[in-house]
Amino acid sequence: MSKLFDLSGKVAVAVGGNSVLGGAIAKSFAEHGAKVAIVGRNMEKAEEVTKAIEENGGIAKSFQADVSDLATVEKAAKEIEAWAGGWDIVLNAPGMNSPTPFFELEPEEWDKIMDVNLRGVVFTTQIFAKRMVEQNRKGSIINISSVSSTTPLSKVFTYSASKAGINSITQFLAKEFAPNGIRVNAIIPGFFPAEQNRKILSEDRVASIMSHTPMNRFGEPEELEGAAIYLASDKASSFVTGTMLRVDGGFGSMTI
């Protein structure tokens, strides 16, 4: 069974791999044999993930890019190709959140969040997938969505809208890239206390989340690794594309 999840010989690009969740997945890619490019805006955090991978015997390198500035993504893609020759796996894990109430929302904030969460993912995927097609390189694209993508969450209007868009582009691109042997799927995480959502986790909100989560706890970043490795593997998930895989402690199965 271990052969199903062996990523040896693969190159993975982890966009947002400097984040808590993206970093956990990037480390898992390396543990399963992939060579990993850590792409992020904050190079200090990217280097921390890279160092952790190297200390565990893996191969990784950090590349600076901001998905809201596509010129930096283009530059990173060229640098990654020079380093590794190409890539087989692309993880899209950038994220930005805000609790701004709807009537207080300004166009600038809407644009900023959409630039990272949706526009950035669309055009980052365009950059990396185009090169995969040109190289006739089959593989896997994994988008990080959210439980707010299917039923919007209170207090995070723009974030919810952006993640609903992620689900739509995941399904569209699954069909678009299928003839090229590129699978496109999304992971829908439940509540993981990552940087971007700590600011809205008041005591009342935590109680509300727990009452809606059958497992009655937050997720740990490492609990996303199994889903990511499954979707990255062209053996384990060779006939899986256009799907949204929930890792949410049962949150999506609950109403009241």
UniProtKB/TrEMBL annotation:
PANTHER family: 3-OXOACYL-[ACYL-CARRIER-PROTEIN] REDUCTASE FABG, SHORT-CHAIN DEHYDROGENASES/REDUCTASES FAMILY MEMBER. It comes from the Bacteria. Keywords: Oxidoreductase. The lineage of its organism: Bacteria, Bacillati, Bacillota, Bacilli, Bacillales. PROSITE patterns: ADH_SHORT. The keyword Oxidoreductase applies. This is SDR family oxidoreductase. Belongs to the short-chain dehydrogenases/reductases (SDR) family. InterPro entries: NAD(P)-bd_dom_sf, Sc_DH/Rdtase_CS, SDR_fam. SUPFAM superfamilies: NAD(P)-binding Rossmann-fold domains (SSF51735).
